[in-house]
Write a structure and sequence with these properties.
The structure is a single chain. By secondary structure, this protein is α/β, with parallel strands linked by helices. About 35% of the residues lie in helices and about 25% in strands. Strands 6-7-8-3-9-10 form a six-stranded mixed beta sheet, with helices on both faces. The protein contains ten helices and ten strands. The chain has a domain at about 85-155.
Length: about 240
């Protein structure tokens, strides 16, 4: 992969559920080290885009390229091994397991002997996880579970971290903290694609953004420009 090549690229993606055409000619890319947000309301195609990136739903047309490889026909496990990781919607930590065990699950594809550096990195980013490493994940607050879900994903040493609706289910006071954490992870050098409905907060920390509506990309550009876009402001920002 050349220096200027995208880390992730979706080109002309058409994805269907049965006969229902969900994603329509979607083009999207994330460069190395970028933080890109994908915005859209309910039923806009955001979740299907993530499933297409992960290989859970294969596109009928188009190509998915990741880390210099055409992975369109490759299974999810291959893409994860190549360096994709996801923080799923509603965090989905393993509630009966400890914080430490959750983090170990994030690195299940890697030899345990290689994990010292990842543990140090995660504990540096999230000191609370080190303090609570023996606590059951299910007893943590929503914000703490968000930290754990991100730490678990980082344990795989991903090239690209996918975030699915990180603000969902969090109290408003915790949403801002959640995005501070996302920004902190990004500044540590991880490329990120953040899928969100909260346009204002997402664009405030992103490099670029895309807006999906009924399966099509209807707006794209630099985050600062999108924040000032009149159509986006009316549709998503309420101003």
């Amino acid at each position: 992969m050349s220096v200027d090549a995208p880390l992730l690229e979706l080109e002309g993606i058409d994805t269907y559920y049965g006969q229902i055409h969900i994603l329509q000619a979607v083009n999207l890319h994330v460069g190395p080290g970028e933080l890109v947000c994908l915005l859209g309301g309910n039923a806009s195609g955001k979740s299907t885009t993530l499933k297409t990136i992960l290989g859970i739903v294969p596109p009928r047309r188009g190509a998915v390229r990741f880390a210099g490889e055409d992975v369109t026909s490759r299974p999810t496990a291959h893409r994860i091994a190549r360096g994709l990781a996801i923080v799923p919607e509603n965090r989905r930590v393993f509630a009966p397991m400890t914080v430490l065990e959750n983090l170990e699950m994030g690195a299940y594809l890697r030899p345990k002997a290689d994990l010292k550096e990842e543990f140090e990195r995660v504990y540096t980013l999230f000191p609370l996880l080190h303090e609570r490493r023996r606590q059951l994940a299910g007893t943590m607050s929503g914000g703490e579970q968000q930290m754990l879900a991100m730490g678990r994903a980082l344990m795989s040493k991903p090239k690209l971290l996918l975030m699915d609706e990180p603000s969902m289910g969090l109290a408003p006071i915790l949403v801002e903290r959640s995005f501070e954490i996302i920004q902190q992870v990004h500044q540590s050098g991880v490329a990120m694609l953040v899928v969100e409905q909260n346009a204002n907060v997402s664009l405030s920390i992103a490099d670029r953004g895309y807006v999906l509506s009924t399966g099509r990309v209807v707006l794209e550009g630099q985050a600062a420009d999108l924040l000032e876009n009149e159509d986006l402001r009316k549709a998503y920002l309420g101003r």
